[in-house]
Every structure is written in C-alpha cells, then in structure tokens.
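Tokens help. Our protein:
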Amino acid sequence: MEKFYSVRMRASKERAHEQGGKHISGGEQIAAYENVRESIIALLDKALTHTRGKPDFLQIQFDLIDEPIRKLEPLPLATNKVETVEEGRLMARNLLEKSGVPRACIEKAFLQITEFFGHRGAILFDIQSNQRVDHPNEKSVRVSRMDWPTDNFAQWADHHAVPRSKRIKEALVLATKVNRNRTTVAELCWSDDPEYITGYVASKKLGYQRITKLKEVGDEHGCRIFFIDGKRDLSSYIEYLEKQPIFIEWDPRLIDNSTALK
C-alpha cells in the first residue's frame, strides 16, 4: 500500500503565530514520498510571494499518515454575483439561514465578527447557545490533513467549466471536509488576502456558494466561522477537523448539481 505524508506550511511576520505574529500564509498538501520535495517547493513559493507581505518566520513540516485516508465527494458549487460588500453580506446572511442557522445566531456572529479578525484558524459558533464554543484565549481551530489529487481536480474543473485555480481548489477542499461532517451546519468565510474579495457560504444543504464581494479591496481582515450543532461531541469534531486525513475525489460517472463559475 502506498504511503502518504501530510506536508504543512505556516508563515508569519515579526514573530511566530503563537507569539502574536502577523499571519502571512498557510497551506498544506498530502503527497506520496517521491512528491514531498515538489510539495515543499510549492508551499515555500506560496509563503514567499504572498500579497500580505514578506514573512520572517516560516515553518514547513511533514509527517507520515498512518491511518486510512477518507474520500469525500466535493460539494456542489455555485457563484452569486453582487456589486457591494453590503449586498454580499446580506446574501451571506440569507444563505446561512437557508442552511439551517437561526437568524438570531447569524446576527450575533456578525456583531462579534471584528473580534474574530486576526485568527489564522476557524471560530466555532454554536447554533444552540448562540455562543462561541472553541477556546477564545487559545488558538482557533485549524483544519488540516486534506488535499485533492491534481488530475482529479483538473477533470472536475474542466467538466464544470471552472478555472484550474489553486485558490478554488484549496477553498473547496476545506469547505468539503468541514461541511461533510454532521456537526457542521454551515460555514462563512472570506480571505485575509487584501487583493481577494470573494468569499463563500458552504453547507451540506446548499453546497459551496461563492459570493463575489464580501470585503473591500485592500482589507486584510479575513473571517472563518463554523456554525455547529453544539449538542454533538465537540472534542471529536475538533479531532476530525485537525487530524482526520481526507482526499477529495470527484467521480465523473456521477451527475451532480454543480454550476459553472460565471
């Protein structure tokens, strides 16, 4: 049986993340041993050329995956065009509500959203209590050990007339891992990249819903909130997000309801 390795990178400025440094970039791949060098080079290039600046702390590590890698079908994809941030965030609220997040929970999360800026991971927001349930004084939850084999992603992208974009691939990989878990009700995300203003809402019910404007150009504040059902086992959920290895795999024999990017 072929062995795979989890290759991970994180980069920051002024000091390491845990010492309060500014997050510059992060990324990861799952690679066979003979491809680890290629993965390291790709992640190094991503860290050294990011629009958030030049890092002065950079860490790349890899370790053997010694458990079975689960395979998940990618979420269906759709794009929602908006003209303003206000329109985009209103659409995000509506999509979250359609996904099963109560309106009161959505509004409370949006009221607190500036408190979540600066985290390099995700905030967990319980729809039962309307409260953040990860540990506010500790690091946020970092989703890890996930990838989409390049050839399979290319097949999927060509079939759906989607650009073979690394950004789309990485976002959809994460959204699929997160939202295929039964604890997740929905996810809200936009990037901390100052030049990238598209974000998304994702859920099992609605799939991966891109929204073309969720912040202004030049804004370095990103957002990642997982709305979850707090009645389930939180520790097992976090273990899944951080440790369970996942491959996204699209089966071209299956017909789904994904729509092409416009």
Q: What stands out?
A: Confidence is low (pLDDT under 50) at residues 257-262.
